[in-house]
Amino acid sequence: IRLHIVCDVPDELIDFTFEWKGLKKLCVAVSFRSIIAEQKKEPEMTVRYYISSADLTAEKFATVIRNHWHVENKLHWRLDVVMNEDDCKIRRGNAAELFSGIRHIA
After folding, report:
1. What would the pLDDT profile of 10-60 be if each residue is shown by its tens digit?
2. Are 18 and 37 in contact (CB under 8 A)?
3. pTM summary value
4. Residue ranges of the Transposase IS4-like domain (predicted)?
């Protein structure tokens, strides 16, 4: 279950908008999930906070978040499964970062 909340920047925070040019909306995504394997009685709740310069509705915000994670998951699946990135044992210096960059290019 997901709940998405979008609101205008409150007057109390207007003075802080200089740090985020064009800030228009404060957004909250609340997710509830039950882990059946662990047989927890209460669902686990996750709250994520966002700021946006776009004039979003709650529905549009939900779509943007869903699309973002779809792309992220698709990319990481390829890196994890096809290129075995999770099994990489490279740890010396900045070699891990370099190889990660090469995998992203490939």
Report:
1. 888 777 666 777 888 999 999 988 877 667 678 888 999 998 988 999 999
2. no
3. 0.57
4. 37-106
- Both 43 and 73 in a single domain? no
- Residues 8, 20: Cα–Cα separation, whole Å: 14
Q: Which domain holds residue 43?
A: 1-56
List, in order, residues 6 or more apart from 55 with CB less than 8 Å away.
Answer: 24, 25
17 within 8 A of 23, measured Cβ to Cβ: yes
Residue 65 identity (one-letter amino acid):
I
Q: What are phi and psi of 69, to 5 degrees?
A: -70, -30
Task: Please check whether residues 17 and 52 belong to one and the same domain.
Answer: yes
Side chain identity, residue 80: D
